[in-house]
Specification:
This protein is mainly α. The protein has one domain (12-309). The protein is 75% helix and 0% strand. The protein is built from 14 helices and no strands. Helix 2 (37-53) crosses helix 11 (225-251) and helix 13 (263-276) runs antiparallel to helix 14. It is globular, with a radius of gyration of 23 Å. The model is unreliable at 324-338 (pLDDT under 50).
Length: 338
């Protein structure tokens, strides 16, 4: 088996990418008072587009996309742009803990959607892992209070959009390669955020000292070195996730991938300590342990299923092989996968 097809490697890279996204979320909130969301999105997506389009295989894969492929992958990309725009906006209106807790209802929507749309089996192990992940999230964020507010509604809407994005990844996996998916979603970012930034820069909007309006309607400003570094880190994190996520969802069933979405919570604890000086309590450590346990459980079950599938295939091959003629010596088979 090639390493690209190894499910354990795929989900591990995805978990690492989600860790980078946790850092990105923290840095975006730090920049919010001085740099607008459309500018951050434009810079990141433009750099990512240049990187992707400089790769020959990317241009080749894009050239092989038909009209349906472009439309489908563009829809998928727009869903991601919408999800992230709603989520980043909710960060300004809510404490990070509240916004993250609401956003991490997405795995629940992913699992339920995969059962309805793809008829995937909801095993007892997946249910257990999801329950562990959800309980771990609530323990990690003990101060979470669900109130009826615009911010809470935006965060929940972002979770629904993100779940839709990942389900589309699974559903459209045969329409284009991983590189094509990542590039089209980056181009969607460029288009939406570019138009958004042009409107905010050319228009004359009164921000009225509102942090939220400033974050959404502030035009282009030249970042200082610290801000440029934070944007660069976010760009690298986005590039990594844009490749790791579709690759993982192409290799592993969507409902099995859902618990790994929680891995960013543990990273959020670490970045909270290192950047914000926020030390979690015993509940948070217990929640982080549950989240890690859920991920390890799903890795172990994925390995068991893979071994069972390999054994079943080997058994079927042996049963379908022709019987050797009596008295005729046979030549040993060569294992081409060794």
């Amino acid at each position: 088996m090639r390493w690209q097809e190894n499910q354990t490697i795929a989900v591990s890279l995805f978990a690492l990418a989600m860790t980078g996204i946790a850092l990105n979320d923290t840095l975006i909130k730090l920049m919010a008072p001085s740099i607008g969301l459309p500018q951050i999105m434009v810079i990141r997506s433009f750099v990512a587009a240049v990187v992707f389009l400089s790769i020959f295989h990317v241009r080749r894969d894009l050239a092989h996309l038909d009209r349906m492929g472009w439309l489908a992958l563009s829809l998928r990309g727009i869903m991601l742009v919408l999800a992230m725009s709603l989520y980043f906006t909710s960060l300004i209106m809510l404490p990070i803990a509240n916004a993250m807790a609401l956003f991490f209802t997405a795995p629940l929507f992913i699992t339920l959607g995969s059962v309805v749309l793809f008829k995937e089996q909801l095993t007892i192990y997946r249910i257990l892992a999801l329950v562990m992940g959800m309980i771990g999230t609530w323990l990690t964020l003990p101060s979470f209070e669900l109130g009826v507010s615009l911010g809470a509604g935006l965060a929940l809407a972002s979770a629904v959009c993100y779940a839709t994005f990942q389900l589309l990844t699974r559903g459209f996996r045969d329409l284009g390669s991983t590189l094509a998916m990542s590039t089209v979603q980056t181009l969607a970012y460029c288009l939406v955020s570019g138009v958004w930034l042009a409107i905010t820069t050319l228009g004359s909007f009164s921000l009225a000292d509102s942090e939220l309006l400033g974050f959404l309607l502030r035009g282009w400003v030249w970042p200082n070195w610290n801000q440029a570094g934070m944007i660069a880190i976010g760009t690298i994190a986005m590039l990594f996730l844009s490749v790791a996520a579709p690759h993982a969802y192409r290799q592993v069933e969507a409902s099995a991938m859902a618990p790994f979405e929680f891995s960013t919570i543990g990273a959020g604890i670490i970045f909270g300590i290192l950047i914000l000086g926020e030390w979690p309590d015993a509940y948070a450590y217990t929640g982080a342990a549950l989240i890690v346990g859920a991920g390890l459980l799903m890795v172990q079950r994925a390995q068991v299923r893979q071994m069972e599938a390999n054994e079943a295939q080997s058994s079927h091959t042996a049963e379908s092989a022709p019987q050797d003629a009596p008295g005729v010596a046979t030549k040993p088979a060569i294992d081409e996968t060794a």
